[in-house]
Amino acid sequence: MGTRRPFPAHILVFIAPAVAIYTVFMVFPLFDSLRLSLYAPQGGGSVFAGLGNYVRLLTDPLYAPRFWGAVRHNLVFFAVHMLVQNPIGLVLAVALSSRRLRGRTVYRTLLFMPTVLSFVIVGFIWQLILSPLWGVGEAMMRMAGLGGYFRPWLGMEGPALVALSLISVWQFVGVPMLLFHAALLAIPDEFIEAARVDGASGWMTFWRIVFPLILPTVGVVAILTYVGNFNAFDLIYTVQGALAGPNFSTDILGTLFYRTFFGFQLQLGNPTMGATISGAMFALIMAGVLLYVFVWQRRVQVYEL
Amino acid sequence: MARADVWREPLRAPAAMTKEGWGPPGAHLVLAAYVLVAIFPVVLIVMNSFKSRAAIFGEAYTPPRPGTFDLVGYETVFTRGHFEQYFSNSVAVTGLAIVLIVLLGAAVAFALSQYRFRGNTWLALYMAVGIMIPIRLGTVSILNLSSALGLANTLWSLVLVYTAQGLPLAVFILQLFMRQVPRDLLDAARIDGMSEYRIFGLVLPLVRPAVASVAVLTMIPIWNDLWFPLILAPGEATKTVTLGAQMFVGQFISDWNALLAALTLAMLPVLALYVVLSRQLIRGLTAGALK
User: Fold this and answer.
1) Can you tell me the ipTM of this complex?
2) Chain B residue closest in CA terms to A176
3) Per CATH, the architecture of B82-289 is what?
4) SS3 for A45?
5) pLDDT average per 10 residues of sequence, chain A (305 residues)
6) What CATH fold (topology level) applies to the domain A53-116+172-299?
7) CATH 1.10.3720.10 intervals, chain B
């Protein structure tokens, strides 16, 4: 490689168009957004403000309570997915992977179906079902003997966020299910049989043999859940509007970003503060991804199957 | 490194299966119970969209029958909404973006998997970064860019953004599969004097299942997206189905017939497509995540 040969033309033809579109419409905007977050509007133009916008976001009484509230709500949203969606996904995957199961494809197709619908559709469907006006949700709970517990959850400050998180769980449970399912299918039958021969119960086989083998997938599912959590704007906006009511109790970073950047009702849009919020989201996502790559992936034992 | 065939189904033995019966009843119980949870809400909406207002409230759980069958909701949607327009916008945006993603993504994947050139590893890394970072974080600049380029309120702004968004995963998955194409085959083609572009044309059909998976996998988030249509192309002429349905339902929130009809219309095409392509989708999803 001592002499510098010109870069082969055909390779350039293969990579240039994709790299150009990706760079101009994704990489550049991400960097430019970060750059914008370091400027503040002044008069007609803008001046460099360093980290001033971030300080403002974290401390200014106008922004800080909303921002910290949104971060907290995002964490709740994430926690509900980790505690409800992923365990259900795992249980379904185990059932789906049992040997000699008939109708596997049919089950898999039906269980994954809600995932292909848009947040908008799913949000409206559940808004209708949970509406006291239609009463379908209430009637179902009455059939289960729980009629007295029905409340218009989406309109209540405390439960609304959990209700929305569960709606999203309903929609996306198919994703962890499929990923766990694929991981389970990759485990050779001999491993399980050997454990059985040694007298291990089904429960013990699962926790001692199977679970350690699918631990890498647990990490993949967790990081996908974490990143996906920052895209939940569509659901909240559809069900609760840009103000993420009642009284901002379902306001997540996505809706806060939208309101700040675009403005809403009496509040004027502020692109630089919007960019600052997206910068903060970027930092939170990177923190999660780095934690995953440098702590989880280093620690977790991967077994070659 | 990655093995792209992990998703492959285990070999089945149909004869043994019929002998063994249906398999573990516990598994069937769990799966069937959850299938009800998964499909009941959807069935309920679709079913009630074909009923009169009185029947929607009076007998929500029964399928439409001669006395309660009513298409008034669909009439409202077709006379008051512009769903045909929204559909053609969505089809145009999604279709064009998919073609660009698959074609351009396959070209990069081909270059990455076939040639050792300066910066090969860097390019792979550069493209992979976009898998984890949501493109929405760049929205402020994307909006500025699209107005600077004169693309504001055009379908082109959506196509280009979605293409950029879909490329990283497409490149990643396609190169996994292209690495498995036997080198001897391509070397033989080279000896026969085929140009590198012809060889690319030769490889593409060989990884057809992967191409199909990538297409379905990237299509769904594009079709369902609300964020970019809302911000980049909210005008009446450029509304996509997802945005159109969102706005329509917002306006007709008290007209339950129209509401249910609009929701049904917005989800049926996706569901129909899903039934046809679910195999490709599921394969793509697992291949993408189990690197």
Assistant:
1) 0.88
2) B286
3) Orthogonal Bundle (1.10)
4) strand
5) 70 95 96 93 81 92 93 96 96 91 91 92 91 83 80 86 95 93 88 86 88 91 92 90 87 93 82 93 93 88 74
6) MetI-like fold (1.10.3720)
7) 82-289
